Amino acid sequence: MKTEEKLLIRALRGETLDVPPVWLMRQAGRYLPEYRALREKAGGFLNLCYNPEFAVEATMQPIRRFGFDASILFSDILVVPHALGRDVWFETGEGPRLNPMEAGEAAPAFDPEPFHAHLAPVYAAVTGLRESLPPETALIGFAGAPWTLATYMAAGRGKDEQAAARQWMFTDPDSFAALIDRLTEAVAQYLIRQIDAGAEAVQIFDSWASALAPNAFDRYCVQPTKRIVETVRAAHPDTPILGFPRGVGSSYGTFLKETGVNGVSLDQNVAPEWAAEALQPHGTVQGNLEPMHMVTGGDALLRDVDRILEALSGGPFVFNLGHGITPQADAAHVEALLRRIRG
């Protein structure tokens, strides 16, 4: 099947479909017993990310089980700072860790040759997935946005509304801007290489965008994303791009209009009725079911699915969660979700 015929790609290019395509953020993960077995075999999270065979298998598991309309490459946003020479590791049960940067510290150099060599296993996984996925299933590549990557690099972890990065941008704005600019360049080149390897769409995750005040939101979220979109489009003009500036409320509209993305993914706190009026005339909307429904299920799940479908099915729309599926989720509730959407 040609890329442009796949449901996800059609929706991201602005088509309104009778039944929306559906996939879930973090659909490959600890809620699946087959994933837990694979992670134990791999011996660590980064081993999964950097072993193409393991990464392909992790990505394929939810496709085999549920038949989602799209897969998303199994990896992590922090492979970019890792490829820039920063130490990255994962503490069991606690998440990622980095050696934090100090305010004023020089941005790591971006040398394309070692950067792409470090990420070669990721690109190999993308190619392997294009060969393994069913013909109707779209393949999404992704990267973390510069602001969110910078917050992890400043704090060494995700915490405290990313206070370390916010302090840095005020105490030494020149060096912080240099870090954002360096990450913008690196992320754009990383996404281009994923598309070169076979990704049919890409998503930019700005998970900590909500920590930015309005002026800073434009400087450190909107403008870097706009530059990434322009750079990727120069190399791959037809590849759809999604943005996810999580938790920014009414600023989703500014982000969608000013960055040039094809669509935005919405967190669960956005009213779908507002999104239909304010966002869908300008691009595709993705989202935004409360992830807790995948834990609890029941009538509340079905009611909220119906509400989202009723509000957003009149325009370009991709069904998803408002954030990633959690380890406590029940696969039976995912199956119920899919039955409700697909009828």
Question: How would you explain this protein's 3D organization?
Answer:
51% of the residues lie in helices and 13% in strands. The protein is an alpha/beta fold and 343 residues long. Strand 6, helix 12 and strand 7 form a beta-alpha-beta unit. 50% of the residues are buried. Helix 4 packs parallel to helix 7 and helix 8 packs across helix 9.
Please list the strands of the largest sheet in the order they lie side by side. Answer: 1-4-5-6-7-8-9
Helical content class = 40-55%
The main β sheet shows up as: 7 strands, parallel
Order of helices and strands: HHHHEHEEHHEHHHEHEHEHEHHEH
CATH topology: TIM Barrel
Q: What structural class do helix, strand and pairing data support?
A: alpha/beta
Mean pLDDT score: 96
What are its keywords?
alpha/beta, TIM Barrel, globular, 16 helices
Q: What's this entry about, in short?
A:
The protein is 51% helix and 13% strand.
Secondary structure: elements and pairs:
Elements: H1 7-12, H2 33-42, H3 45-50, H4 52-66, E1 70-72, H5 79-83, E2 88-91, E3 95-98, H6 112-118, H7 120-132, E4 138-144, H8 146-155, H9 163-171, H10 173-197, E5 201-206, H11 214-235, E6 241-245, H12 251-259, E7 263-265, H13 272-278, E8 284-289, H14 293-296, H15 298-312, E9 317-321, H16 331-342
Parallel strand pairs: 1-4, 4-5, 5-6, 6-7, 7-8, 8-9
Antiparallel strand pairs: 2-3
Helix pairs in contact: 2-4, 4-7, 7-10, 8-9, 8-10, 9-10, 10-11, 11-12, 13-15, 15-16
